[in-house]
Amino acid sequence: MTRQLTPEEESKDRFFARVAALSEEMIAAHGKEFAMGTLVLAARWIAEGKMEKAKAN
Questions:
Q1: Residues 6+ apart with CB under 8 A from 33
Q2: For 1-25, what is each residue's pLDDT tens digit?
Q3: Distance between CA 31 and CA 28 in Å, rounded?
Q4: 39: Cβ–Cβ under 8 A, 6 or more apart, which residues?
Q5: How confident is the model over 33-43, as pLDDT tens digits?
C-alpha cells in the first residue's frame, strides 16, 4: 500500500532531487572527490553558521 506524501515530504523530495542533479553535474565536470568535498564543506558551513554570515556580507 502506498501512502500519500505530506507537503513537507514532497518539498524535501524536490530538494533531494535538485541536490542529486547538482551532484551528478559536479561529478561529470570535476570528479567524485570534488563533489563529495563540496557537499561536506557545505554541511560544515551550515553546522558552523557560516552560511548566515556569508549572506550578511
A1: none
A2: 789 999 999 999 999 999 999 999 9
A3: 6
A4: 19, 23
A5: 999 999 999 99
In contact, 27 and 35? CB cutoff 8 Å? yes
pLDDT value of residue 57: 67
Dihedral (Cα; 10, 15, 20, 25), 10-degree rounding: 140
Tell the burial category of 27 from Cβ atoms under 10 Å away from its Cβ (0-12, 13-18, 19+): middle
The Cα–Cα gap between 41 and 30 comes to 16
CB-side exposure of 43: number of CA atoms within 13 Å? Answer: 7
Residue 46 CA to residue 36 CA, distance in Å, equals 15
